[in-house]
Amino acid sequence: MKILYSISQKPGFTGSGFYVQSMIKQASLNNHETFLLCGVQQKDKRISIPGLLEHNRSFIEFGSKELPFQIPGMSDVMPYQSTCFKDMGEKELFLYEKEARAKITKAVQSFRPDVIHSNHLWLMSSYIKELFPDIPLVITCHGTDLRQAKNCPHIKPKVTEGLKKADRIIALTSSQKNQIHDIYNIPKSKIEVIGSGFDENLFSYQKKTQAPPVNILYAGKLSFSKGVLWLLSSIALLNKNKLPFNLNLAGTGSGKEYEEILNFGEKLSNVTFCGMLSHKELSEMMKKSHIFILPSFYEGLPLVILEALACGCRVITTDLPGTKELAGNIDSELIKFINLPELETIDRPYEKDMETLVLKLSKILNQEIEKSLLNPETDPDKIDNLIKNYTWKGIFSKIETIFKELIS
Q1: What is the percent of the chain with per-residue pLDDT over 70, rounded to a whole number?
Q2: 327 and 343 in one domain?
Q3: Cβ-based neighbour number of residue 287 at 10 Å
Q4: How does strand 191-193 pair with strand 335-338?
Q5: 3-class DSSP state for residue 22?
Q6: 77, 109, 214, 394: least surrounded by Cβ within 10 Å?
Q7: What order do you get walking across the sheet with 291-294 strand by strand?
Q8: Distances (CA, A) of 371 to 331, 383, 401
Q9: List of long-range contacts for 331-339, beta carbons under 8 Å, 24+ apart
Q10: Strands 2-7 and 33-41
Q11: What pLDDT digit, counting tens, does each position of 279-289 carry?
Q12: Which helix H or strand E contains 191, and what residues bound it?
């Protein structure tokens, strides 16, 4: 089978990018031929993906003569310099569409795929179906694309008809399936909940070192919507208790939010910025961490939680639909949920609630640090039944079944 994968952002820098890389690797292991069409900055084409032949890739180049602006991101704050879709005017959208359609056409005509697996319910996926209606199109929703639909009313009408014609939509959670139906009026019979996966060969249990100090890890974009400033404010408050712990922040960001996070964190002696880590580097850090924290105000399906659990970490996270669906049945000794108040926007709390949130998070952190000081180990047997359903091998097998059904 010949499978063309598409993503309009850089692969490998976000959850959706790692998803694409993992799908390509699994497709190759199952003897399928793959092609990748992705977005890049003009001078940044260093892409190495297991299973992807060098000549089977094509780039939509931003910062070029054809597209003289930075690559648009599905999140308003990306881990690299980017353009916000909500800020794109008609001229930028015209240039974007013209170049994307040209590169899609060239890729499809040269590779001649049996099926196309696109990522994000947004512009690129819509263009693909409009240009090649007879080639089966499967689109994976990653959550951030639904946020764009709400934040960009001037763009949503440009994608709606194309997305409705997709042959199958993959949702990460049941709540996301309902959102897709509500936002685009796509029949639920076209939407399958499959979820996403993690690499069990990298992320696996390792006996924890004795505390103190207790090692706490955050991994993700360094942005407000991910709750990083909230986390740092809680750490500053918790430091008054003089508990022996360190916080490592794995990831990067951009813009004023990122600068504010760096300035705040650098004032805290027990906070370390680790930068962007490879999957292997992240797995090694998780194995050395006692607690993993993901204090996001918005998430799709945060697989990083499964990766942390697989490495034996206790987990603290917010009670968003995706996290509850993913990990709601896990023993409370392994995962603690933070109840969020009603949010002002889809990924931002009311300012009046921030003080209470800081107090709440610092209290939970205090409790989990004390638990780790008494016993740094967790019981891996308690989570085996959950994580075995989320391996990349298992996820690809389910999607491969869809491909075969659509092709036949």
Answers
A1: 96
A2: yes
A3: 20
A4: unpaired
A5: helix
A6: 109
A7: 271-275, 245-250, 214-219, 291-294, 314-318, 335-338
A8: 15, 19, 44
A9: 331/379, 331/382, 331/383, 333/378, 333/379, 333/382, 334/309, 334/378, 334/379, 334/382, 334/383, 335/305, 335/309, 336/364, 336/367, 336/368, 338/295, 338/364
A10: parallel
A11: 899 999 999 99
A12: strand 191-193
Residue found by looking up tokens 């740092």 in the block: 232
Q: What tokens appear for 217 in the block?
A: 């890890």
Residue pair 322/346 in contact (Cβ under 8 Å)? The answer is no
**Domain-embedded: residue 205:** no
- Look at residue 41 and tell me if it is in a domain: yes
289 and 378 belong to one structural domain: yes
pTM above 0.85, yes or no: no
Residue 108 counted as domain residue: yes
Total domains present in the chain? 2
Query: Could you give the 3-state DSSP secondary structure of residue 343?
Result: strand
55 and 161 together in one domain: yes
Q: Are 72 and 88 in contact (CB under 8 A)?
A: yes
Please state the φ and ψ torsions of residue 18, each to the nearest 5 degrees. -65, -35
Relative to beta strand 72-73, strand 83-84 is parallel
Q: In which domain, by residue range, is 235 found?
A: 214-387
Same domain, 252 and 286: yes
396 and 376 housed in the same domain: no
Q: Are residues 380 and 397 in the same domain?
A: no
* Amino acid at the residue 113: P
CATH of the domain at 327: 3.40.50.2000
| 209 occurs within a structural domain | no
Looking at residue 117, what DSSP letter applies?
Answer: E
Q: Cα separation of 1 and 377, whole Å?
A: 45
Residue 203, both tokens: 């992320």
Tens of pLDDT, residue by residue over 308-322, are 989 999 999 998 877
100: helix, strand or coil: helix
- Cβ neighbors of 358 (< 8 A, separation 6 or more) are 230, 233, 234, 237
Indicate whether 17 and 165 sit together in one domain.
yes
Per-residue HEC secondary structure of 381-403 comes to: HHCHHHHHHHEHHHHHHHHHHHH
Contacts of 355 (CB under 8 A, 6+ apart): none
What confidence tens digit (pLDDT) does each residue in 37-65 have? 999 887 666 677 888 888 999 999 998 99
Q: Are residues 264 and 382 in the same domain?
A: yes
Residue 328 has pLDDT above 70, yes or no: no
